[in-house]
UniProtKB/TrEMBL annotation:
Keywords: Carboxypeptidase, Disulfide bond, Glycoprotein, Hydrolase, Protease, Signal, Vacuole, Zymogen. It catalyses: Release of a C-terminal amino acid with broad specificity. It comes from the Eukaryota. One of its GO terms (biological process) is proteolysis. It comes from Anthostomella pinea. This is Carboxypeptidase. InterPro entries: AB_hydrolase_fold (IPR029058), Peptidase_S10 (IPR001563), Propeptide_carboxypepY (IPR008442), Ser_caboxypep_ser_AS (IPR018202). PANTHER family: SERINE CARBOXYPEPTIDASE CTSA-4.1 (PTHR11802:SF113), SERINE PROTEASE FAMILY S10 SERINE CARBOXYPEPTIDASE (PTHR11802). The lineage of its organism: Eukaryota, Fungi, Dikarya, Ascomycota, Pezizomycotina. Transmembrane segments: none annotated. It is found in: Vacuole. It is an enzyme of class 3 (hydrolase). GO terms for molecular function: serine-type carboxypeptidase activity.
Length: 534
């Protein structure tokens, strides 16, 4: 089975190729199941009936589940002498401080095997912005993992403005897409030149764009990361070492934001950071855009969004809408089992069945899963030609040299990573359960462009309202209020209670800053400014 490139999500889905084939032969099925067992471990007896059932309900089910791929990216590591900064995690880990007569580590954690490399990026060579910039790698030496990042200082007041980490989703899509297509200081034009972005989020904040997990974008490894929890330790190490090396940014408020599969990433990453009592990371908030966070709740809203109940015309015929209604109870039953066990043997069938039943019908229409208002115009580039322009720009030798990139080439999304996350069961897991504890400590923003299908606003509203936390009643009773620019132009609506906020952004698809640049900058500045904090 192959996954069409156009179905990989800029942030959250793995809707599968339409041309799935029914398995051919008992002997092939046995071989494929053996391959799955090699990756997931021995199948529990209780899971056998479920897998047998899925093989009958979903054509090519075992073939899909056996497609576990790990292809390291070719690379050549540069010597430390070519970097302006090299920070050894072991040195940072060994630091002790004394507070009120009690000696303790300056930072908690597991930094011995991590190092950070950084170089100054000459703005005149690339022209992405005129501000101070750094690029480099976080190295996990023990596991041969190397994560690429690119930092842009705030255009306004970097000594006081907040610092934001931006994450694209996929899983398996580079955050350079967010940089050059959505909220970064420049975009790439069809001729390969850069266009200055007045609405960049670094207008009033310093922003770090990170390629994660490994083997995404400029990042690389001899192995792969298959789950969100494994990636969380990398994020803690990255920010700890970054703020140690650049203490001029460490005192400012720090926020994590991202879209799509970042709905999985961010709750886990924030929980990891907050779990460290002694830390140099001043985490003050998280923001998730069109995220996949609570699949059980969100999958219930695919039929309404596809069938005219989300504010736009119906894309599907009534018979197809009825079929989705009929499939939903089974989908949610499977997801409930996944939530209960969190086993890949349970979560993989749930993901494959639900994606085929709830995403497949929409995808087969040819409409853009990231924007219900239009047909998919470029199947090879996630429906957006801009992704090809970005790849062409970042594959230029002079650009790679200026940034210190150590891989042979850049691609916007890695389909192997996408499959690996799906087929290790990460996709269907209930990471929304981490949010109530996060809300107790820092503000949480959920925002959604209302023209997206794949992680649509109805689903994000659904899980936000369903979330069990101490302020649930106050949040659910809160009224939606208009979001407007200074000239009075309304671009969305918002409700907030306690430390929890939900926004619907009008006339925006999966990538809100792409469709609503001025509106996204407005709510972002107001968000990091504390307007909706408890």
């Amino acid at each position: 089975m192959r996954v069409a490139t156009s179905t990989l999500l800029l942030g959250a889905s793995a809707a599968f190729a339409q041309e799935q084939q029914v398995l051919g032969g008992f002997r092939d099925s046995i071989k494929q199941l053996e391959h799955v067992s090699d990756a997931l471990g021995e199948m529990p007896a209780a899971a056998k009936g479920l897998w047998d059932e899925m093989s009958l309900l979903v054509p090519g089910f075992v073939e899909q589940a056996s497609n576990l791929i790990s292809r390291p990216k070719p690379h050549q590591r540069k010597p430390d002498s070519q970097w302006d900064h090299v920070v050894k995690g072991a040195d940072v880990q060994s630091m002790w401080v004394e507070t009120d007569g009690v000696k303790h580590r300056k930072v908690d954690g597991y930094l011995e095997d991590y190092n950070l490399r950084a170089k100054k990026v000459d703005p005149s060579k690339l022209g992405a912005d005129k501000v101070k910039q750094y690029s480099g790698y976080l190295d996990d030496e023990a596991n041969d993992k190397h994560l690429f990042y690119w930092f842009f200082e705030s255009r306004n007041d970097p000594k006081n403005d907040p610092v934001v980490l931006w994450l694209n989703g996929g899983p398996g899509c580079s955050s350079m897409m967010g940089l050059f297509m959505e909220l970064g200081p420049s975009s790439v034009k069809s001729d390969g030149n850069l266009k200055f972005n007045e609405a960049s989020w670094n207008s009033n904040a310093s922003v770090i764009f990170l390629d994660q997990p490994v083997n995404v974008g400029y990042s690389y490894s001899s192995s792969n990361v298959y789950n969100t929890v494994a990636a969380s330790k990398d994020i803690y190490a990255l920010m700890t070492l970054f703020f140690h090396n650049f203490p001029e940014y460490a005192e400012q408020p720090f926020h994590i934001s991202g879209e799509s599969y970042a709905g999985h990433y961010i709750p886990v990453f924030a929980s990891e950071i907050l779990s460290h009592k002694n830390r140099n990371i001043n985490l003050q908030g998280i923001a998730i855009g069109n995220g996949l966070t609570d699949p059980y709740s969100q999958y219930s809203q695919y039929r309404p969004m596809a069938c005219g109940d989300g504010g736009y015309k119906a894309v599907l015929e009534p018979s197809e809408c009825e079929s989705m209604d009929n499939a939903l109870p089974r989908c949610q039953s499977l997801l409930s089992n996944c939530y209960e066990s969190e086993s890949a043997w349970t979560c993989v069938p749930a993901t494959i069945y639900c994606n085929n039943a709830m995403i497949g019908p929409f995808q087969r229409t040819g409409y853009n899963v990231y924007d219900v208002r239009e047909k998919c115009k470029d199947q090879e580039n996630l429906c957006y030609t801009e992704t090809a322009w970005i790849a062409q720009y970042l594959n230029q030798p002079e650009v790679m040299e200026a940034l210190g990139a150590e891989v042979q080439d850049y691609e916007s999304c890695n389909t192997d990573i996408n499959r690996n996350f799906v087929f290790q069961g990460d996709w269907g897991k209930p990471f929304h359960r981490l949010v109530p504890d996060i809300i107790k400590q820092i503000p949480v923003l959920i925002y959604a462009g209302d023209a997206d299908y794949i992680c649509n606003w109805l689903g994000n509203r659904e899980w936000s309202n369903a979330l069990e936390w101490s302020g649930k009643k106050g949040f659910n009773d809160a009224k939606m209020e208009s979001l407007a620019l200074g000239d009075g132009d309304k671009y969305g609506e918002v409700k907030s209670s306690g430390n929890f906020t939900f926004m619907r952004i009008y006339e925006a698809g999966h990538m809100v800053p792409y469709n609503q640049p001025e509106g996204s900058l407005d709510f972002f500045n107001r968000w990091v400014g504390g307007e909706w904090n408890a």
